[in-house]
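Inputs:
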Amino acid sequence: MIVTTLKPLDEILESISPYRKILIAGCDGCTQPPRGIREVKTLKQLLELAGQLKGKKFEFKVTSVVKQCDSVLTTSAIKPYVEDVEAVLSLACGAGPQTIAKFFPDLPAIPAQNSHFIGIDDRQEGQMFDSCSACGDCILALTGGICPVTRCSKGLLNGACGGASNGKCELDPERDCGWELIYERLKRLGRLDLIKKFTPAKDYSAKGWRVTP
Amino acid sequence: MSQPVAEPKVAVNINEDYCSRCSICASLCPYDAITQDHDNNIMVLDIEKCQVCGICYSACPAKAIDTIYYSTDSVMKYLEKVRPQYKSDSLVIMCKGSAPDFSEVGKLFGIKDFIPLAVPCVGRISEEVLLGVLVAGVKKINVLACDEDYCRFHRGSPLTGRRVIALNRMLEQLGYGPEAITLKRNSLKVTVDKDLCIACGTCVAYCPYDAPKLESVGGISFDLDACRGCGLCVALCPAFALDLENWERERISDLIPQLLAEMKPPKILVFRCQWADYPPLNGDMSPSIGTIELPCAGRVEAVHVLEALLSGADGVMVVACSEDDCKQEKVSARAEHVVARIKEKLDQIGLGDKIDFAPVSPRYPGQVEEKVREFRQSLEGAKKGTRKGAAE
């Protein structure tokens, strides 16, 4: 999923401060829990409370879009409000405000979330973990299903570097060494032969900037 | 005896002088809180294990157990006091855990007017009360218990079932007809609005009872036999697609301004798990306190807390069972987490001290009062602080 966190409320208040009539748009899409109508309503109430303290009265409208990264779904959801609002505060990942910016050129689109990564939601640990860098050239088949581009701090395609101690990365003692995880996993799968396979430098142009579905 | 008592006052006591050592209490206690001390020939109550269900109280043949909540005397006095308000000779005794709205309760029994008596677990209502109200002139008793396997106190509902059967047999012999006391069972369950569901799986992730199932075709469905009506999924659903009968989001939202309008500052709105603290039957609440009872603290959601603050509450307190006392599956711990997250956000706008989470137990009466007093003092302290700051 896309992992996002709510921006500090001060920052949100600062970015919406030039406007009074604002549409808060949630996104039912990829995050867990989705930043849907509940998050929208909660944020609205928090901003109203903060507004009361600062003597500022906002007029909020609320909606939630099935997927803000989809231009059709987003335009149809936002359109009914366009005449009534001065800005849209988006609870989607970074793609959401950009969809709004692209299809509503006159409407300021303000992010309420910081987008962190494409990650795993590990409920046992109660944490989200960065797991995919969307490099456009997946090599998980060679690395036991663990991405070295993401999980190795150095993004090494051929590891390990030798700097790890007790399975932890030399750059961050709290972080597991990605290549040690790959080694253990390949060993378990009986595919240690794969670790000897050389992966040449990535063709990062494969990541692309547009894709035709 | 004017010295302050070091031992905290407890809600249940065994009076040794009356106790006949029959052990019925020990055999019925769902929590093994009562044991027989053979060496000293006494029954011993471990108050820390006691969940104050009142089953021992209602079953003790020697009336050797005292409880400060819903004792026979207080229930009888209460009924005598409220009876003139109701134009009815029918009484409905209902478990708070399973009773829907009073109008719905009436429909369940096919009656319009009745005298309501809502108690935490009908297992605490003894034969003495049931017969006593008949003697006092009530013509018809209806009892609404939870479904047997849903009873928060495990044995309260089954015990009530046996009690009603036995009493009805006796009453029939006295000419009361075959069903002087009608028993019905009901349990609160989640309701789903499939049109609002976004199939995100949040309920699946958090339900402690594996009640929700999410399928790629067909979306969300709930195994209602597994649902325990705690309301956690309702409080977490990102799409407002879930609700709980009698504790609908709208109903709670409507209650908030109503209560606040009647309160005097500093207004403290308390969201209380109905198992964490038992209010007195007809006690007066402080005019600065308003209480909304919830089926479990898990039903607390940010929307309602913020609504209260926006509607003029000076503080919001969430009263829950301690983690070990939770009648649900560790839901109170989840509630604490939910409240902590709300507090984090309120902290960012300088209102973090307006919310408080208080784990308490009815076994120590007065605990809630104490926590509320502390909270009120901190609210008043904060207020003075800001005023002072402004003056400087």
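Residues 80 and 136 of chain B are 8 Å apart (CA to CA). Flag for discussion at group meeting.
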